[in-house]
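Tokens help. Consider this.
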Amino acid sequence: MRPLICFVVLLWTTSAHSTTIRVPSGLSSIEDALAFASDGDTVLVEPGLYRVNADFDGKDVVVISEAGPLVTFLKPDTTALPVFTFTSSEPATAEVSGFTISGGRGAALIHIQEASPTIKGNRFTDHESYIGNGAVIFVRQNSASMISQNLFWDNPGAYAVIWGGNPSSPTIINNTVYTGRVGMVLWCEGAIVLNNIVTNCNAGVSVTREMTRGYNNIWGNVSNFSSGSPAPTDISVNPLYIDPSSLRFGLQPVSPCIDAGDPYSWWNDPDGTRSDMGALFFDQRTPIAHNLSIGAEDIAHVVSHSPTFVWSYHDPQSGQAAYEIEVGTDPDWSSAELWASGEIWTADTLSTYSGSSLADGEVYYWRVRVARSSDSAWGAWTESVFRMNTPPPVPSPIWPVQNDQASVVGIQCIVASVEDNEGDSVNYDFEIYAEQALITLLAAEYGVGEQTDSVRSGFFDGLSIGTTYWWVARAADGFEASDWSTAEPFEVRDVMTHDVPSVHGTIQAGMDFAQQGDTVLVAPGLYFGTGNRDLDFRGKGIVVKSDSGAVTTIIDCGGSESDPHIAFYFNSGEDTSSVVDGFKILNAYSGSYQGAAIEIWSSPVIRNCIILDNQCGGISCQSWYYNWYGRKHPVIDSCDIQDNATYGIRSASDGRITNCVILNNGGNGIDLWSPDSIEIAFNFVYGNEGSGLYVLTGSLGNFQIHNNTFAYNTQGIDYYHEPPASGFEMTLTDYSGLMSQNLIVYSLHGGVVASGIAIAPMECNNSFGNTENDWPLYYYLPHAGDSAGNLSLDPLFCDTTDFLGCFRIDSISPCAPDNPANQCGLLIGALGVGCKGAPDSDNDGIADVNDNCPEDSNPDQADIDDDGIGDVCDPTCCVDSTGNVDGDPDDICDMGDLTALIDYMFISYTPPACMVEANIDGEGVIDVADLTRLIDFLFISFTPPAPCQQ
């Protein structure tokens, strides 16, 4: 690893900045420092963890860490925004250097457009994005950035690691990429791409344009080049990292990447040798100490106050004879303020600290040099840094305290959140004891993650009503834990019902007072204002229920663009014990893209609600970043969702949506993003301005979408699935997800609309009467009469105007399970049989409107020539032998028949006038054997064709 002090000092000495702004000792945040800075200034960031979404806003400013990426960490404050944005013509002298940057979700960690900053000497990890401009570093549109000496690891969910889009001309040099979907996307003419290592990605590099590139090692990826090909000087060999499992991506002494970079001296390593490949050069000065570490401890969170310093010795001439270590409080080394070991003559490559006391939370610098045994010559110093960890503060108990009563269904302990001194994420441990002396441990939960303001444990049960218990909590930062809090007593009670407004004046007041298993019972009336909107369950498993149903129990959110409000918001891990039952919800307004009258990021139950006339969506069900994190499982049942400004229900979750009526909304009726284990069943979806059902999926999933009726929507079902990878042939059996027994009628622009897919997972559906088309026009997609039982027949509704009757079907509808036209023998649609009376002149169970031979019974509807007329109604056209393909009245086989058969089989595919005549060999199928048999009769053996079979 490049000596840290050289890295920092060089940056200072090659700059001419007028002002240095320190963070946080000068200004508290990087954003504040950038806002205050002028062109030519430096923002110097002290060690620690910072939450950042900063825009350089056109300024020529350097943002650099004081002690390097090992102890200086940046994460996005808002995970869907970049950590740094350059979109205002920032020059090459604007710079970000010396940080570990991680934790992005959606947008790029660094976004560069119409700008040319320098991104140097950073480490990037743990970034997730499935969109192109959410690459770890995204560069495009007239950008000429320098991206050098950066290490990228563990970014498998990023769309790409480095994205260079056209037109741009970045210089991408001496970077190491380990794991990612695509290591580098290089779609940019004029780029310079040299001396990089790209390994362990799904695709190593994608190249589509000419550029200067070479001396890269592209190895060990599933596909080294997804497009393009290696440059003549590229290699593909194991780079021999030190130990990637412990995040040590330096090069072993025998690595083929050493001295393998571009030989131009401009790119030489700091030790003066030819450039190595990758971000971390191998120091060839000898003797030298390599791979400095603090034993097995995290360098940024050292716990031991007597740490062990560890290194590797390198010198091809001879072994180690001695070492010397110094530890100080700054990197200028005018003195070693804390410890100078002196020359220790031993071959040991580790040493335990024995200097002055180390303080929690402080950063310390250390360096080591070694001497070789052959001539006792000392090598150069190698430098590093470490930070002592500080345990988090003791959390303060909030509830239950001082003998509060807690519900027997589930006791939940709550503490105030603490802030870790190093900014690390904090987990919390909870324990419950039988006595104040904390002897008998009865229940415990460990590792509860951070929450907003306060932290709630899970629910503890199995405790006895009327008994007193004691609980304690502590906080841990992943390295050390705080002391335990003071023990607090509580008493266990039975579940209760809390009346609103007679006991609690607002719905939220009742919810706040309720505990796990309780019911908040809301009397009929109109509820509005603070406490009756923006309602939050806060993780509780309680039932919030109207006393007399949704028609008479109304929540008026009173939301507007200037003052947004919704009805319910679920964001605290609620499960199906959290229930909303029986409310009418009006006038919600949500400013968020996913916004709705009820916004769900967990797994509650919403039932028997009317969601009407809201200036947003009806219900939004989301999982964090769709398929990429823990899926949620909300249940929406028996709700009426009508006349809302956008969609009816939008879901990127699992769970169920059942028995709902979704009418006349301003967007899609049901809008599914990346569906996985979700069931959509027995819903009536009518008159929505978008699709009745929109499905966008990049995974096969195991969704079940069945027995829904979609009527009079702009489109019926709009299904998009990304095509399979090249060379992978997908069939219906590859889909565990399935859309079946749905009825799609009278859509304005297509019944089933499919795009971007290999095959649609649909069977036993009926699509009928839709403008433009009922089914997609591609042979590999479902269609009427296919082997999967899909139909395009009049469903014979009893009444399409009476929504109380809700489009129920006639008893002889093809959607009824016992109709012969229904190959699956299953109910199609949501609403079932509601009448009997459709004409059926031949009494074969097929209504005249759907019968291909209404005067003659033919329940099988056989139509071998596919002319729309059943076989029993076709005129007799085969008198003696087969072969009269062109239908001549004399029933004679001649050249006209041969021409007609060739035209049918190979040219126009137009069925003959009588299909049975083309079955010349009598085998029951029309194929090349029939053509051969006809040629044989006409020109060779003159043996007559097979006799007619009718």
The first strand starts at residue 20 and ends at 23. The two ends are 88 Å apart (CA to CA). The longest helix spans residues 895-907.
